[in-house]
Amino acid sequence: MGHYDRLAPEEQARITEIQDLLIERYIERKEETEKGNNSRTDDIEAEIKELRREKEQILERATASSA
User: How sure is the predictor about 23, in pLDDT bands with cuts at 50, 70 and 90?
Assistant: First the structure.
């Protein structure tokens, strides 16, 4: 059984979208850090935290609904 098998198709799609966005944000954060743009880096970090929180919420709902 795969890690996301308990998710509805819409939830699986959103998890994939979030993972893609996270990759983009991690790359962007690295680039902005290298430029010394700390203000933008802080904004990106906040976006990363929000995306990770949303992903965890989706996974928690799936776990709760299967219990």
Answer: very high
Q: How far apart are CA 42 and CA 51, in angstroms?
A: 14
Q: With contact defined as beta carbons under 8 Å apart, do 65 and 10 qualify?
A: no
Q: Give backbone dihedrals phi and psi of 8, rounded to 5 degrees, phi first.
A: -70, 160
The residue type of 34 is E
Neighbours of 24 (CB within 10 A): 13
51 DSSP 8-state letter = H
Q: Specify the pTM.
A: 0.85
Residue type, 12: Q
CA atoms within 13 A on the CB side of 17: 8
Going by C-alpha positions, the residue among 28, 62, 58 that lies closest to residue 45 is 28
Q: What are 5's two structure tokens?
A: 């098998």
